[in-house]
Amino acid sequence: MFSRFVFYKIPRLKSSDNVIIQNGDAFIYFDSNYKQWTLSNVGMVSKDQPIAYTLQQYYDNSNNPEASCLLVFSIMYSDQLPYPHNGTWSSTSGHCKGVTVFSETSGFWLIHSIPKFPRNDTYEYPSNAHRYGQMGICISLPYAALSYIGELMIAIVLYFSKNTA
């Protein structure tokens, strides 16, 4: 359960020669393997990229009762109402979203600004998130960090779309 990366989802740029950038799916990222910003060969809609791989750990465990016993804690949160409330939005929120998944020894915390993302049942990039730039960071943490994350979440108004505790 080790993940560490930063990403920036490039806004839709219809004048670009790159089809993924034209569609608003493109993102750049860096991690321990790519120590400089790297344009992904696939877009955010693809399941074959680091963000989807990281979230797949959550889906594999939450959709499989036998595997979910390996998790101590998992949660998806947002300061906006979660999917499927696609018509609901707020002009005063929308930038505090994330996924936290922990086993007995370690976990990851994915913090991002993508509206209505991720779904709690399967990886799907939302259709309303192509126009603007978005960002995110994913960090690996020891189990002891979980209590600090909880303290931070108390300080803000959040909607929880799914959790196991």
TrEMBL record:
GO BP field: apoptotic DNA fragmentation
Organism expressing this protein natively: Toxocara canis
Cross-referenced PANTHER family: CELL DEATH-RELATED NUCLEASE 6, DEOXYRIBONUCLEASE II
Similarity comment: family membership: Belongs to the DNase II family.
Domain of life: Eukaryota
Transmembrane segments: 141-160
Keywords assigned: Hydrolase, Membrane, Transmembrane, Transmembrane helix
Name of the protein described by the UniProt record: Uncharacterized protein
